[in-house]
Amino acid sequence: MENSFAIVPDVKKITSNSSVFSVSSQTKVFADNSSSLPAAILLAHYIQNITTLALPIREGESVTPQDILLSTENSENVLDQNGFTDETYTLSIDDSGCHLSALYPMGLFRGVQVLRQLLSTHSTNLPGCHIEDSPRFRWRGVHLDVSRHFFDEETVCRFIDAAAYHRLNVVHLHLTDDQGWRMPIDAFPRLTSVASKRECTVLGHQHTRPRTYNDQPHEGFYTKEQIQNIVEFAAQRGVHILPEIDMPGHMQAAITAYPEWGCTQEKPGVRCSWGISQHILNPNESTMKAMETILDEVMELFPWTFIHIGGDEAHKYQWDESREVQERMAELGATSEEELQSRFIARMANHVASRGRKAIGWDEILEGGLAENASVMSWRGEEGGIEAAKKGHDVVMAPMQSTYFDHYQGSPETEPLGIGGLTTLEKAYMYNPLPQSLSPEESRFVMGTQAQLWTEYIPNSNHLDYMTYPRLCAFAEAAWRESEKVDYPAFLERMQIHKKRMEELGIQFAPIPTTT
Ligand code: ACM
After folding, report:
1. Domain with 319 in it: what CATH number?
2. What percent of the chain has pLDDT over 90?
3. 312 lines ligand 1 (CB under 6 A)
4. How far is the CA of 122 from the centre of ligand 1 (A)?
5. Which residue in 73, 78, 155, 424 could disulfide with 151, CB within 3.0 to 4.6 Å?
6. Active site residues
7. Strands, E, within 103-182: which ranges?
């Protein structure tokens, strides 16, 4: 019976009752105080989208049974050391009205999305229920690569809104890579005038030989105003934006704009093919200072605690070959290129920490010794995350085997061209972000989990939807539910109803397997 509410991700506890709450032109949306208002405004916005009713919003608690009340036990969010707040909320729909309450204002945003799902299915006649809910993990993220293909502000906001619909709370924007730099930096204007544009793009799969290219330039970057809009749009939904500046590898576009940051003085051109570039930052003092300046400007625009500094797939060939870099290694007392990368990352992590923020990087940052104050995003499996958690560092589990949605979701014979791999809906659903090998004490360092949308083979927003959904629905369950609540057939059943809601939002789904 409760499965018929078809809430995705499923809620912790739900009971139904025989009441029906009618949303009508007489209904008002009440916020008990000013800190509940943003969630009330968001709810009224969704109600208008779904029912066309423009309901008045009021502050106060003197409600009648035909009103909706949003209230919190604590009027201010209390942040943990990582910038997260407890998201516990309760939703009661019964003869006394519709009451959404939360421990802290942040929890209201999660309950609003549940109400939105019920409105989408039942329109103005909400079914009686009592829901008690809270997430298992505090970090429930989704990543979007806007470098390989640029997605405009509208598409990014739509992506954020759909993530929020699934009670996810972190959207990671991969803003820079070999194939394009996507944000303005006042100190280095060529990052947008030069590095945001590539002249061509490889056709078909990167591994196809002979390799061929189109001759269409691909370009784009967000203005500061657009970034502020994106951050604000996310904040209005209780979503944090995690910006990534990937270094010291994945920097070919930036090195094209500023060849002095590289190791060869070459101007390589913004990369037109996928795969990993050999171009890597020169770890000399002036390049490190430039990166700190960039991070300062990033921190001005992105207010959340965490800043992603990349660290993945940095080929060390140019470091091996460069006399200057070898001398720099000796000067820093690093005995290997991996250790040199660690020094580089540690310097950036310290810089971020000196501004009261936290740096997170891909698991390669463990290789030459993990910087004291860096957190780890574990993508090559869970091993890096396990190692970091055992060392007392915060981690996000993002193993490619279960959370990379650029992978195929079905047979490559019938699916559109993808990068490779196979991450089925069921695999995404079954994922348990907490490895058994961690003790309860160590498990506390697992902040949560994240899904990844790398976009080499995702050229437009329709295809982005196709690769994201339905797998992100399954991922959201894995991130939200308690580990014992695994029931794939029940999930598939709920998805039949949920899919219609997503289609109403204009989101194109890949086919949902009907059997397990
Ligand atoms: C990655 O997939 N290179 C983090």
Report:
1. 3.20.20.80
2. 97
3. yes
4. 41
5. 155
6. 177, 250, 313
7. 125-133, 139-145, 170-174, 176-177, 180-181
